[in-house]
Known about the structure:
Elements: E1 6-11, H1 13-22, E2 24-29, H2 37-48, H3 50-60, H4 65-82, E3 89-96, H5 102-108, E4 114-119, H6 120-124, E5 130-133, H7 138-153, H8 162-180, E6 193-200, E7 208-212, E8 216-224, E9 233-238, H9 244-257, E10 265-268
Parallel strand pairs: 9-10
Antiparallel strand pairs: 1-4, 2-3, 2-8, 3-6, 4-9, 5-6, 7-8
Helix pairs in contact: 3-4, 3-7, 4-8, 7-8
Amino acid sequence: xxxxxxxxxxxxxxxxxxxxxxxxxxxxxxxxxxxxxxxxxxxxxxxxxxxxxxxxxxxxxxxxxxxxxxxxxxxxxxxxxxxxxxxxxxxxxxxxxxxxxxxxxxxxxxxxxxxxxxxxxxxxxxxxxxxxxxxxxxxxxxxxxxxxxxxxxxxxxxxxxxxxxxxxxxxxxxxxxxxxxxxxxxxxxxxxxxxxxxxxxxxxxxxxxxxxxxxxxxxxxxxxxxxxxxxxxxxxxxxxxxxxxxxxxxxxxxxxxxxxxxxxxxxxxxxxxxx
Length: 275
C-alpha cells in the first residue's frame, strides 16, 4: 500500500465527541492498554533472537570480546527494564492506514463506532509525540534491532570510559523498548497500524484519568490536534449502522458546531450492518 496521507483513529461516539469538540486526541499509558499483544510480542522478539543478535554483532566486530560483553550487558539491562516498565511512562495512541475495517468496527459497533481521519503530515510534525508505522514482518523487526545496536549503542560504548558506556546503555535500552512497542505479530498485519507515542521519563506533570469497562480507572494524556482552520481532522467515518442517515446528519451538525463542516468530509462504512 502507498504511504497514506490520512491516518485513522477508531473510536466510540463518546470518543468522537471528545476529539471534535476539544480538538484533542487521548493517548493512554502503555501499561494500561487493552492490547497486551504489543508488550508480549516485544518479549518474544528479544527472547527468540538473542543468538541472532550475538551472531550479527560478532560478525560486525570481528569477534571482539568487548563487543560481546557490551551486548550481554545490553540484553541483561533490556530484560531488567522490560520487567520494570512502570519507572517510565509511554503514552500511546493507535492509528490505522485504513478507514473501513470490519475488525475495528466490531470492536466499537455495539456502542456506535466512528473513525476520525487525521492529516498524516500534521501528525508527523507534531511537537508532543513521534509517529511510527507498526512493523509486522519478523525478519524486518530483527534487522532493525540489530541495525540500531550496531549504529547507535556499540559505537558509543566500545573503547569509552565506564560512565560513557553506562549512559549509552541506558539510552539504547530506552529506545529499544520504545521500538519494540512498534512490533506486532504478522497475524495482525491487516490492521495496518501506526503508533503515535511519547516517552515521559519522570516529569512532574500529572495524567488525567478515565473509566473503562475492561480495566477500570486508567491514566491518559491529551495531545492537541488543532481547532478550526488549524484542525488536523480531514474525515469522519460512520461505522456500520441501521440508522446511517440519522448518524450522518448528526455528525454533520457536530462538525458545523465547531466550524469544521466545510473542512471535514463525512463518509459512511460500506460494510453491511449485521449486529
